[in-house]
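Project outcomes to date are best conveyed with an example. Our students and postdoctoral researchers have been running inverse folding experiments weekly, and each run begins with a structure described purely in C-alpha cells. The record below, which covers 110 residues, was selected by the lab manager from last quarter's runs and is presented without edits.
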C-alpha cells in the first residue's frame, strides 16, 4: 500500500475538523463581525461541527483497517485518536451544559 491513501485520509480528517476550529476562532475574536453573526446560532451550530470532527477522526483512521503495512499510518492514528478524544470530550461538555442550562433551567449558565 502506498503512502497516498494515508496522506489523503489524514488531510481529509483534518479538513473535516477545520470548520469547528475556524468557528471557534471567530467566536473568540472579541466583538468582531463574525462573533455577531455566529453567536446567536452557536447553540445549534456546535452539534454539526462536532459531528464533523468525529467524522474527521473516522476518515483519518479509515486506511488503517485495510493496511498490511503501516508506513505513515502512525500519523493517521495520531490524528484520528486526537480528533476523537477532543470531540468526545467537547461533546460531553456541551451535552452537560445543554442538560444543566436548557433542560433543567439552572442559574449561572453563561
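After processing, the design step wrote out the following sequence:
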Amino acid at each position: 500500500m502506498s503512502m497516498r491513501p494515508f496522506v489523503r485520509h489524514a488531510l481529509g480528517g483534518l479538513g473535516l475538523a477545520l470548520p469547528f476550529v475556524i468557528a471557534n476562532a471567530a467566536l473568540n475574536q472579541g466583538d468582531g463581525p463574525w462573533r455577531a453573526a455566529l453567536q446567536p446560532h452557536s447553540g445549534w451550530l456546535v452539534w454539526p461541527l462536532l459531528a464533523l470532527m468525529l467524522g474527521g477522526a473516522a476518515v483519518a483512521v479509515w486506511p488503517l483497517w485495510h493496511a498490511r503495512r503501516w508506513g505513515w499510518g502512525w500519523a493517521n492514528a495520531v490524528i484520528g485518536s486526537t480528533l476523537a478524544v477532543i470531540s468526545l470530550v467537547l461533546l460531553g461538555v456541551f451535552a452537560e451544559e445543554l442538560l444543566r442550562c436548557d433542560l433543567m433551567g439552572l442559574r449561572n449558565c453563561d
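The chain is about 75% helix and 0% strand. Helices lie at 4-27, 33-38, 42-61, 73-103. The training component of this project remains on track.
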